[in-house]
Design the sequence.
């Protein structure tokens, strides 16, 4: 009987722990969802900002978007080649192209 009572107590404690963890999980999930919605709402504004700064980028010869496209494609490389690309790119940024 003592063992059964102990098991019942353990199950009750675990049920309470499970409920508290589930409530924490829901709070974290809501937090993640709100942050995701906020980031999604920023995307159109960032796109407008990029469009507005294109003439300035072209005038200063700072083609950020083309560099981003190259970096996006470089991430598709196998890991050793990507590391080589990252090192070469860093070296070029530090010492000039």
Sequence:
């Amino acid at each position: 009987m003592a063992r059964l009572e102990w098991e019942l107590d353990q199950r009750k404690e675990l049920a309470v722990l499970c409920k508290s963890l589930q409530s924490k999980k829901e709070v974290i999930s809501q937090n993640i969802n709100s942050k995701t919605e906020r980031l999604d709402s920023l995307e159109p504004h960032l796109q407008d900002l990029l469009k507005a700064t294109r003439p300035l980028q072209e005038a200063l010869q700072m083609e950020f978007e083309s560099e981003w496209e190259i970096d996006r494609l470089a991430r598709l490389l196998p890991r050793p080649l990507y590391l080589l690309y990252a090192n070469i790119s860093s070296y070029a940024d530090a010492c000039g192209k």
